[in-house]
Amino acid sequence: MPQPTDIRTELAKAPYEPLLPVEKKLIAWSLGTGLVLLVVLAIVNHFVPASF
Amino acid sequence: MSAIQTASDRAPWTTTSAAPWISEDWLSVVIGLFIFVLALAVLANVDLIGWVVTTSVWSNLGQALGTASKAYAPLGGAGALIATYLALLALLSAAALALKSDVKKFALAFTVVFWIAYASWVVGSYANFAAVTPADLQKFGISWSLKLTNEGGFIFALIAGLIIANVFPRFAETIKDAIRPELYIKIAIVILGGFFAVTAAGKLNLASSLLLRGIAAIIEAYLIYWAVVYFVARKWFGFNREWAAPLASGISICGVSAAIATGGAIRARPIIPVLVSSLVVVFAVVEVLILPFLAQTFLWHEPLVAGAWMGLAIKTDGAAVAGGGITESLILAKSAAEGIKYQPGWILGTTATVKVFIDIFIGIWAFVLGYIWTNHINVTRDKARIAEIWERFPKFILGFVVTFLVGLYLALGTPADVAAKVPAAIGEANTFRVIFFILTFFSIGVLSNFKKLWQEGVGKLAAVYVVSLFGFVIWVGLLISWLFFSGVKPPLAS
Question: Is a pLDDT exceeding 90 seen at residue B406?
């Protein structure tokens, strides 16, 4: 049976890891695409209103 | 007991070493479809489940309970309640058996869970809590009411669970075998597909507009939420990647399932998403106690914005969809008091649609992360595979789609005499859906031992959650909901 582990201990054991370029790229692309799509979809939404 | 032990104990139903032959996910589809098919017997003039118990707003307890169908009225409220308990006990014990759980332990625990949860629901339907309109107050001979509607009973079930978890933790431990919020809500969502179909059938254009807006909202939620929460966890709070990725998915996407899918995709130790999941459940409780009332106060004139907001802001399927149910009843009550009577089903349908779309994309998003992780971050031979998208796809969504399509066909594609019976048939299945909601709420409460989590050092994780959720996720969710759903109103009740 595995030993019980404390969350605090688990977090303390976790090593510091600087943001890698690939992570920065992931964040930037995800956020950038999201914001651009937000504007595009909002415009589409404005011109194609919900129909009843 | 540590939080990790606690969380691990909660996760599997399985008590034997052999793997069950069916997953909980598929089992929810089987059970949901089983109830749905039984309900459809009404179309052939055979009422198989009309005995299921239903609760009305009451001031005299003797009149609180009844049967879903008048055909079974002679059974009486108490008879209906006992019949419902026995049917669910048999059905879910068979499920426990399929999952190779200890059936006897499950049956005992479920008995306790069912009676406490349903008692809470009945209390919530008491006229002073639930009556809404002046006519209702007059009918029950009361001068005041909290106006929670009878769906306020969900809150009572949640509070009952919270009391047990935080005041009687040993008792909570003894009933843990039947504390299965994910299973209960998945069954409910499968049944909900048919109910939503009947609601949508009358307004197909509006329903398809909602679906398109739901997709747009979800793409946004994934792309914007995840990136920001991951950045906050990594940069501001110094979490390493193994913690930050499941945490970001748990907070930003869909709680438990997203955290677990992401943990698996990036090859994190299994314990990490389990811990994140514990936290997600606790925060979902806080949200479900606050957001529906905020929505009623500030968004009652934009009901579908409120519905979408619940789907985007509240994490975990159970809390979100059930939160949508509470929001619907609160907003319908407030609108009715203002003289506007909306058709029921649209607000809850919007929440469920948003949540189902979120779930659909979990596998794809987990694959994207898994691909980046296994090829660029922790380069390993154990590469992410396309097949993982299907493996992580939440199968209960298939059940939702099936009941939705069947319900839609029956309502629109059958002769008028058959179509006329569809609402009654689906209504009986929907009564079971409400009971599974009640079980979900109670179970979520029982899982939420705030004190224990805090004592075990969850503070730093909780800090990321608080900053992300209350500083960002809730408000961006509101903005996105507003952008895509404002001005779209549910049809008026005829």
Answer: yes
What pLDDT digit, counting tens, does each position of B53-99 carry?
999 999 999 989 999 999 999 999 999 999 999 999 999 999 999 99
Q: Determine what percent of chain B is predicted with pLDDT higher than 90.
A: 46
Measured between CA atoms, the residue of chain A closest to residue B6 is: A4
Contacts of A34 in chain B (CB under 8 A): 219-220, 222-224, 227
Buried b (16+ CB within 10 A) or exposed e, B9-23: ebbebeeeeeebeee
Length of chain A counted residue by residue: 52
CB of B236 within 8 Å of any CB in chain A? no
Contact B25, B393 (CB under 8 A): no
Query: With contacts defined as CB-CB under 8 Å, which chain B residues touch A17?
Result: 234, 240-241
Q: Do B372 and A26 touch (CB under 8 A)?
A: yes
Closest partner residue to A31 (CB to CB) among B4, B223, B240 is: B223
Helix axes B181-201, B204-220, angle to 10 degrees: 140
Tally helices (H) and strands (E) across chain A.
2, 0
Residue listed under structure tokens 């069947």: B406
Mutate to test the interface with A, among B2, B6, B247, B365 (most CBs of A within 10 A): B2
Query: To the nearest whole angstrom, how far is the Cα of A25 from the nearest Cα of chain B?
Result: 10
Q: Of the candidates B400, B278, B290, B366, which has an alpha carbon nearest to the alpha carbon of residue B7? A: B278
Chain A residues in contact with chain B using a Cβ-Cβ cutoff of 8 Å: 4-11, 14-17, 19-20, 22-23, 26-28, 30-31, 33-35, 37-38, 41-42, 45, 49-52
Please report the ipTM that was assigned to this predicted complex.
Answer: 0.89
